[in-house]
Automatic annotation (TrEMBL):
It is found in: Cell membrane. Residues 43-298 form the G-protein coupled receptors family 1 profile domain. It holds the Pfam family 7tm_1. One of its GO terms (cellular component) is plasma membrane. Belongs to the G-protein coupled receptor 1 family. It is a multi-pass membrane protein. Its main location: membrane. InterPro entries: GPCR_Rhodpsn, GPCR_Rhodpsn_7TM, TAAR, TAAR_fam. The chain crosses the membrane at residues 28-52, 64-88, 100-122, 143-165, 185-213, 248-265, 285-305. This is Trace amine-associated receptor 13c-like. One of its GO terms (molecular function) is trace-amine receptor activity. Keywords: Cell membrane, Disulfide bond, G-protein coupled receptor, Glycoprotein, Membrane, Receptor, Transducer, Transmembrane, Transmembrane helix.
Amino acid sequence: MNYTEVNQTDYCLQFACPERSVSAVYVLLYVSAAAVVLLTVFGNLLIIISVCHFKQLHTPTNMLILSLAVSDFLVGALVIPISLIWTIETCWIFSREFCIYLILTSYFLTSTSIYNVALIAVDRYFALSNPFLYTNKASVNKICFVVVCDWCVLFFYNLGVHYFNRNFKSLVMCPGDCFLVLDEIWSLVDLLFIFVFPCSVIIILYGLVFVLVRKHATAIRDLNVHTKTQTSKNATESMKSERKAAKSLGIVVCGFLACLFPYFIYSLLGKAIAVEVESFQKVLILVYLNSTINPVIYALFYPWFRKCVKLVLTFQIFKRNSALIKVV
């Protein structure tokens, strides 16, 4: 993800972190931060356990949801705690090495999340546009291979960006700050590869998905009017299931884009406007909070997830043959 180009001179005006007195508001901020971290970590952990444990959930689409949950879990465990401390303290209180760690980790995990959502959009489009071909060609093993390739490509891409960007020589590490300023060429490359391309895929394919959903709704009505055979009933149920899955995942995608767009607006306008540190931090935190929102969306719109959570929290997954329990 492209860290917006900021005014380094303005940053260096902050020569030291301001002293913070312990107050009720200060404590409340840390309690709220802990709650966000716990919700992100345990919410995504429940998704990971559910998809991995229950055999009925071992589907190609759920492998992509699993990949997204893993990246969100790592964001919650490795990135959000540090970022929230930075925001609450209003300055960077850790070392330069820890700053580099945060940049590398957040950069890689957020870009992985973006491409996971893009893969989900591709998966839903092909499942709805050609369900018979999708059923025959898509498999759990093939999707897992695609996911592994996706993680590897993004890992080496992120290493390349930081290596060719002068090995962190452009790291802004004034007292109290931790930002990476990419040069103009890498800023453009990063913007196109990490944001423009995947988000274009997401928006275009989900636009086509909702067109297909409307066509399927018309087809379901026609089937119900003209025939009452068992075959038509099965086709109707299958189309309804695909439509419901597309709508639910569409909500995930909309939430994702809503969290992502403010950051990249700041990135695009960074050279034209004076970006305040605190404002930039809040926009960056919004990107990370998408990892917190996703499990909440699953809990609200996925009955299988609610059932799995109940089975996990009541320790029924430790019973013999619990993996075979029907959750869908």
